[in-house]
Amino acid sequence: MNLRKSYPEQPERIYFFGTCLIDILYPEAGLAGMQLIRREGVDVIYPLNQTCCGQPAWNSGYRDEAREVAAAQMACFPEDYPIVVPSGSCAGMLRQHYPALFAGTPQQDAAQAFSERVFELTEFLSRVLKIKLNDLGKPVKVALHVSCSARREMGVANEHQSLLQQLSNVELVEQERKEECCGFGGTFAVKHAQISAAMVEEKATALVASGADALVSGDCGCLLNIAGHLEYRKAQLPGSHIASFLWERTNAAEG
Amino acid sequence: MQQKVEFHDRAGKALHNPQIRSNFRYAMDGLMLKRLRSFPDLDELNRLRLRSAEIRANALARLPELLEQLEARCRENGIQVHWAETAEQANEIVLGIMNRHGAKLLIKGKSMVSEEMELNHYLEQHGIECLESDLGEYILQLAGEPPSHIVAPAIHKSRQQVAQLFKEKFPDIPYSDDVDTLTRNARDILRRKFYEAPVGLSGVNFAVAETGTICLVENEGNGRMCTTIPPVHIAVTGIEKVVEKLSDVPPLLSILPRSATGQHITTYFNMISSPRKPDEKDGPDEVHLLLLDNGRSHIYKDAELIATLRCIRCGACMNHCPVYARIGGHAYGTTIPGPIGSILEPQKAGLDQLGELATASTLCGACGEVCPVRIPIPELLNRLRFERVRQDHTGATRGQGGQRDPWEARIWKAWSWVHANPMLYRLSMRMATGLRWLLPNRLGPWTSVRTAPRPAAKSLHTLAREKGFDHE
Questions:
Q1: Distance CA B24, CA B397 (A)
Q2: How confident is the model at residue B470 (pLDDT cuts 50, 70, 90)?
Q3: Which of A93, A204, A239, B417 is most open to solvent, judged by the fewest CB atoms within 10 Å of its CB?
């Protein structure tokens, strides 16, 4: 169930919001996302003053602290270009929660206008760019984990799936309870570590049982959690961000 | 922070109890599937959710007025209306009615408000026996346990565990773990009690202001027996259960059982509009409606949090909650568990007492997605996380700021300082990437089941600059 009713035509240029997790832990995913967009003939700008969307503080109840960080982000994207985000979770923050975060402040209208320019990466690739992917990779079985924010806040589960389905040598396999949360939840994983552990253990077990050769997700929070646990239990199931996965399989130089 | 310790302990125990884990997983999987099958048409579901949310929101917007109307109509119909601000007052009112009739036995249909009041305990202290007649509640009364789910109170017990309990409590009855046999045995025991009890008690699903009608949804027929056989019937409800008109009931009745158990309609639906009239063959001589506030009017005062009170107690949020499915209802330590409990109970008891529950969620959104009255549970959890640490003391929420931890607050302050200053942020990224092999392999609870995250050699900021993405 996508939240947007209509999508704009392909723009000349876009802003890329890389997210803090990708910046430090999965930079290749951010780079892949930008390269996928640039390959379609769109200029991509990565403003160097961006940091984090502010979600960690927002979800922990520290709204003043979140607002300060959020205001600094809005200042990084001054032109009216679309803002593409390689994460359902951070896109959800920018798109769904910025208006609430700034409600009743002088920046209320600016936050509303800003939020309407935000696109999650897979929806931008498939709905705006109408990208056509040519799979150059070897046959592989893939399990897709759609983050809860991508699925429920941004409504882009179908966009994730349809991009992978364009890849002719990729067979999508389904893990049991694929719609259930992996147990990350940001600070939840630390505050309620035992519950989080129980959730990720079951998620990983289902993924291993699916027979997949690789795990793909559009959110690095989930990847950090699930792939971190798979590695901990020494399961042979590597995880990658959907942007890296798509880029690696469709880019002739790396294929 | 006592509650925090208790919640962690109880959740931890539940997580390490394979029987609890499998009982809940099995039951929740079944309930989710049943709900899914009962809404084959998603457009119809969405229309019905919108309509139901509107009905409940409208009723809450006019709550004081509708409650007065409800009281007036009930009185016209011959129903006696009582108001209680606290659970203690509500218990006293029930005791008063029992005493006026010299009643020593109360037979009860399922009522979560009576659980909230801890009515059984209170009456037993005053020499009055309470008997639960809902099968699940009866099982729990035998076991001496509180409900772990609001619709299926004994869901944490397997069939075999119930059979074992019956064997211990009723050694004369031959052992069986067949569900039908167990149900028949319980029915035989309970049936006689309906004729003996001078007073019956029930909950309320909807109280119709327009007509003064008490609506009761149930599956076992025990609700109907509790409200028709004893000469006195007491209905207990929270003040939020009022709806404006009789025509509001069908949409709610259509969505409630489907959301709860996947049934299109419950086996029984009772509409109680007065005591027995002279020409009627059955029904009680006296009907009492007890309206309990117990913190609800505080919730009512907040324009956003008032949505908490829309709840029609279907339990769909707990059935779909990945946290509830793993720790079960008892871990929450509250009358109402699961996502709705985590927003309702801290507001009633105060965030200083129960605010920790608002953090016991990944904010995955499964609860909000299935809620039949569209309570934005994740947003309200987020709001309560704010309320529990805010310092300005504005608004009506109880125990506001009561769980602010100065150390945690300082960490967020520092976090904000770094992330609102691009220079500082880039400096910290350079340190993290540069010193990445020096970072520890053990990171507290995170690495108890996961490897430690390892910063990349170059941040995306660096890569973007190298590949020319940093300018137009």
A1: 32
A2: confident
A3: B417
**Closest residue on chain A to B327 (Cα):** A195
Domain region containing A156: 140-250
Query: What pLDDT is stored for residue A91 in this prediction?
Result: 98
Question: What pLDDT is attached to residue B442?
Answer: 84
Q: Which pLDDT score, from 0 to 100, does residue B443 have?
A: 84
Q: Quick check: A148 and B362 CB within 8 A?
A: yes
Subunit contact A31:B464, Cβ cutoff 8 A: yes
Q: Is residue B178 assigned to a domain? A: yes
Residues B139 and B156: their CA atoms lie apart, in Å, by 11
What's phi and psi for B115, nearest 5 deg? Answer: -70, -45
Cβ distance A44 to B364 less than 8 Å, yes or no, reads: no
Interface contact flag, B416 A69, Cβ < 8 Å: yes
Contact between residue A158 and residue B297 where contact means Cβ atoms under 8 Å apart? no
Which neighbouring-strand residues pair with A13? A43
Tell if the CB–CB gap between B326 and A198 is shorter than 8 Å. yes
- Partner residue facing A152 (CB), from B359, B369, B446: B369
CA triple B209-B211-B216, angle to 5 deg: 80
- Is the separation of the CB atoms in A197 and A183 below 8 Å? yes
* DSSP code string of B294-340: TTHHHHHTSTTGGGGGG-----HHHHT-TTHHHHTTGGG-SSS-HHH
Number of CB pairs < 8 Å for A and B? 206
**Which helix (H) or strand (E) element contains residue B243?**
strand B242-243
Regarding whether A17 and A44 lie in a shared domain, the answer is: yes
Beta bridge partners of B201: B108, B234
pLDDT tens for B154-165 read: 999 999 999 999
Considering its fold, how many domains does chain B have in total?
2
Contacts of B264 (CB under 8 A, 6+ apart): B38, B254, B257, B258
The last residue of one of the domains, among A73, A102, A128, is A128
Q: Looking at the structure, do residues B272 and B415 belong to the same domain, yes or no?
A: no
How far is the C-alpha of B382 from the C-alpha of B387, rounded, in Å? 9
